[in-house]
Specification:
There is one protein chain. By secondary structure, the protein is of the alpha/beta class. It is 25% helix and 25% strand. The chain contains four helices and seven strands; from the N terminus they run αββαβββββαα. Strands 1-2-7-6-3-5-4 form a seven-stranded mixed β-sheet, with helices on both faces. Strand 4 and strand 5 form a beta hairpin. The longest helix is centred in the middle third of the chain and has 16 residues. The radius of gyration is 15 Å and the shape is globular. The termini are far apart. The N terminus is likely disordered.
């Protein structure tokens, strides 16, 4: 039987990350329920549209809490210089481009575990970014990324 006084490792990002949102900061927060019943699993607020500058921080943060990330899906039109793969933390991450809105990024952990993150535009105000991120991780939320960005003034 496990010792009830020992800390439990949940592999989820801490809730305090949400309060740390500041302009020019890349932030990821995953839904803090184990069921993952919402449309989105989290949110990301990159500083710019320079994927080479932004993606390593996102992948490193996710890898620390979720394990190795193998693939990322992005809208090629929304990012500058989108490669087909990058080496991040000594691991190759494959990058798939798709012709969809730039309001989500798809993250694959392992072979099949897929996470969908809202992408808050880099020009969003801190208040709008916080509101969008909070809605993206609200348990059971059925709002799509585009609607969240419009409703929170982040678009």
């Amino acid at each position: 039987m496990a010792d009830p006084s020992s800390p439990r490792v949940t592999r989820l990002l801490p809730d305090a990350v949400h309060q740390a949102v500041r302009p020019g900061t890349a932030v990821v927060r995953l839904e803090t329920t184990h069921e993952r019943q919402g449309v989105l699993d989290g949110a990301w607020w990159p500083r710019s549209r320079d994927i080479a500058a932004e993606l390593p921080g996102l992948i490193s943060a996710l890898t620390e809490y979720l394990g190795p990330v193998t693939r990322v899906g992005l809208d090629a039109r929304a990012w500058e210089g989108l490669p087909t793969r990058m080496t991040i933390d000594d691991r190759v991450v494959h990058i798939d481009s798709f012709a969809a809105g730039d309001d989500t990024v798809l993250i694959t952990r392992g072979e099949q575990d897929l996470f969908s993150l809202l992408v808050v535009p880099s020009h969003a105000t801190p208040d709008a970014a916080r509101a969008a991120m909070a809605e993206a991780v609200r348990a059971g939320s059925v709002m799509r990324a585009e609607r969240i960005l419009l409703d929170t003034g982040s678009a």
